[in-house]
Amino acid sequence: MYETIHHSNGLHDNSHRESLPGVSIPSLLGYDARPHAGDIMKRMLAYIRRSKESDDRTISIIHQRAEIDGYNLRNELITASTIIDNGVSGGDRSRITHIRVAITQGNLEGMVAYHLDRIARDAAAQLDLLSWFQKKGLEMHTVNMGLIRSEQSHEFLNVGVQSMMNEYHRRRCVEHGVETYRKQRIGNRRYSRYCPYGYQFTEENNIVENPKEQITFQIIKFYTLEEPKSANALARNLNLSRSFNRIGTPWSAGSIARIQKRIKNKNNR
After folding, report:
1. How far is CA 122 from CA 51, 126, 129, 261, in A?
2. What is the mean predicted confidence (pLDDT) over 7-30?
3. pTM (global) more than 0.85
4. Which of 13, 57, 110, 190 is an S-S bond match for 139, by CB 3.0 to 4.6 Å?
5. 229 by DSSP, 3-state: which?
6. CA distances (Å), 158 to each of 26, 113, 125, 256, in order?
C-alpha cells in the first residue's frame, strides 16, 4: 500500500503516536550524523517502508515514524511530507518514482528514512537515487547513519557495499526464503532437513505424526500449555523416566525449550 501524507505547516501532530526513545549511532565512514550548524529547518520527506514479509519481530511503521521525528528534532529538520509504503518489497522500483515526484512537487530539500534498507533493497536503484539526490543538491539521511555522503571514493564504496548486501538479503535470505518456508509449513509440506519432534516425513514429503514420538511430545505439550513447567524441569523428569530424545540420548533443556516454543507459536496462530 502506497500512501503520501502532506503537512501544510511542515510539522507532525505527534499527540496520537507511541512515544519511543530515539536511537543514534555515531558517525561512520562516509556518514555525518552531526547537526547542520547554520541551517534553518530544512523541509524533508519522511520515507517509511515495511515489507510484505514483516512480522511482529520487524520494525513497525509507528516505530520508524517516531525515530524519524526524533532525528529531525535533533538535527533541526522539518517533515513536510511523508510517504508510507506498507507491505511493499524493497525491490519495487516504482517507489523510487514516488519519492522523486514527492520531493519535486513539494519543493523539498531531502529525505529522511529509518535505515538505508528501508529506502531500497536494490543496489542499482539505491545508487541511482543517491546520484539523483546529488545532482539536485538534495540531502539523504538515515536515522542510524545521519547524512549520507558519497563524494569521495571510499564513501561511495561504503554505500555501494551496503546496498549490495541489502539486495542480497532480500533475494536470498528474506523474501524468497521466508515466503517458501511459510508456504511449505502452512501446506504441511517438508520445509527443513529435519522433521519437527513428534512428526515424520512421508515419501511424498508431507508431514505426519510419528506415533512413537507423539507420546513424549504430548507430555511436553501438556506441561507447556496446561500445567506449565520449565524446560529444565521437563528435561530432568523425562530423563528420569528414560523417555529419551529421537536419537536415544538424554534431553537437554535447550531441546525442550525449542519444542515448547514451537508448541506456543502454533497455539497462538
Report:
1. 13, 6, 11, 34
2. 40
3. no
4. 110
5. coil
6. 16, 18, 16, 43
Task: Tell me the average pLDDT across 167-194.
Answer: 60
How would residue 13 be classed by pLDDT, with cut points 50, 70 and 90?
very low
Question: What is the Cα–Cα distance from 44 to 10, expressed in whole angstroms?
Answer: 9
- Say whether both 44 and 155 belong to one domain: yes
Residues 137 and 235 in one domain: no
For residue 111, what is the enclosing H or E element? strand 110-113
**For residues 1 and 232, what is the distance between their CA atoms, to the nearest angstrom?**
46
- CA–CA separation, 237 vs 33, rounded Å? 55
CATH of the domain at 23: 3.40.50.1390
Strands 110-113 and 2-6, sheet pairing? unpaired
